[in-house]
Write a structure and sequence with these properties.
- Helix content is 71%, strand content 0%.
- Helix 6 (111-124) packs antiparallel against helix 7.
- The longest helix is centred in the N-terminal third of the chain and has 18 residues, at 22-39.
- The protein has 349 residues and is mainly α.
- The chain has 18 helices and no strands.
- The protein folds into two domains: 1-125, Serine Threonine Protein Phosphatase 5, Tetratricopeptide repeat (Alpha Horseshoe), CATH 1.25.40.10; 228-349, Serine Threonine Protein Phosphatase 5, Tetratricopeptide repeat (Alpha Horseshoe), CATH 1.25.40.10.
Length: 349
């Protein structure tokens, strides 16, 4: 299941009033120019035009919100938040500005503020499918699966064909271990978005849970074909191959993932585990050593937070790694002393 919220910011162009000053007219022209430049990906030029719009009309909510969206694309999240809040000050019922604000807080990993902003967006626009989706993702990431599912279903009332809402509703069902419902939602998402790698990857996870290993591997391969550099999809495919006893394929899959990101903790653990199964001590030792010596599972980084979420219970994992480290050192002269192989979890797409 994918963790972060949808991070798209929305650019708006308002209809000008019937009567307005020369400054207001200039502000609207600059706002439209900035919005057009943003849609072309020319963000520095867009920011300059939108700053000009704000200077011409200090009560122009659309310009503030659009400037915030552009600053966020330029990596200035704090600046973006300031502009979104300014837009809301000018227009307290500005749903798109609340939505953009929620996404910006999500980038800061301030989930409480992000949830509050998305709820405000929905309060001012009840059929705001994107806001329902992002609110639900935040709730789902906090393991509030029932609340997340309710939010997804509310969003689907406004956008019943939306594949992202269907896919993410599947994630909530997966969290609730209602696997048949999850499979239905993922398949519906794929039907409406055949190139949606994430939905294939999530479907593969659930198929593995219900014991349909061949189908799981086939679906994961589709996900990898659609997104060949997606490390999560590769890890998911590898864990399904692991459950099927396809050790050679599993090793190649995890090696491919590690080539894409040498720092990926979960990939190292997965690869080292299967190497242990093959009695390939020389290759397993360095991987486990890297994990133990360079990765602190208590760190509040996105990668380690995901590792904590997926490797439950965490203390068991940490003990297992430390035990392997000690056992491997003692086992150098006795290739038969190994701990039992444990099931590992991959990442979602």
């Amino acid at each position: 299941m994918k963790s972060p919220t949808e991070s798209t910011c929305q650019i708006t162009v308002s209809t000008p009033p019937t009567e307005f000053s020369l400054e207001q007219a200039a502000a609207r022209e600059a706002n439209e120019r900035g919005a057009a430049l943003a849609h072309q990906g020319r963000f520095f030029e867009a920011a300059a035009a939108l700053e000009e719009a704000c200077e011409f009309d200090s009560e122009f909510a659309d310009a503030y919100s659009n400037l915030g969206a552009v600053l966020r694309r330029l990596g200035d999240v704090e600046g973006a938040i300031t502009q979104f809040e300014e837009a809301i000050r000018v227009r307290p019922d500005f749903a798109a500005a609340y939505y953009n604000l929620g996404n910006a807080y999500g980038l800061k990993d301030d989930k409480t503020a992000a949830v509050e902003a998305h709820r405000a967006a929905i309060a001012h626009r009840g059929d705001y499918a994107e806001a329902w989706n992002n609110l639900a993702r935040l709730l789902n990431d906090g393991d509030h699966y029932e609340e997340a599912l309710e939010a997804y279903l509310e969003g689907l009332q406004s956008a019943p064909e939306n594949p992202h809402l269907r896919n993410n509703a599947g994630n909530a069902y997966q969290g609730l271990e209602r696997f048949s419902n999850a499979i239905e939602k993922y398949r519906y998402a794929i039907e409406n978005a055949p190139d949606m790698s994430e939905a294939y990857s999530n479907l593969g996870i659930v198929l593995k849970e219900v014991g349909e290993l061949e189908a799981s591997i086939a679906v994961h391969r589709k996900a990898v074909n659609l997104a060949p550099e997606n490390i999560g999809a590769l890890n998911n495919m590898g864990t399904s191959e692991q459950s099927s006893g396809m050790l050679d394929e599993e090793i190649r899959t995890f090696e491919r993932a590690l080539e894409l990101d040498r720092s990926a903790v979960i990939t190292k653990i997965n690869l080292a585990t299967v190497l242990m199964e093959r009695n390939d001590i020389d290759r397993a030792i360095p991987l486990f050593e890297e994990v133990v010596e360079t990765a602190s599972f208590g760190d509040e980084t996105p990668e380690h937070a995901l590792a904590q979420k997926k490797f439950r219970p965490l203390p068991h994992v940490e003990r297992r790694i430390l035990y392997w480290r000690q056992t491997l050192r003692l086992a150098m002269g006795d290739a038969g002393i190994y701990p039992a192989r444990s099931h590992l979890s991959g990442l979602s797409g």
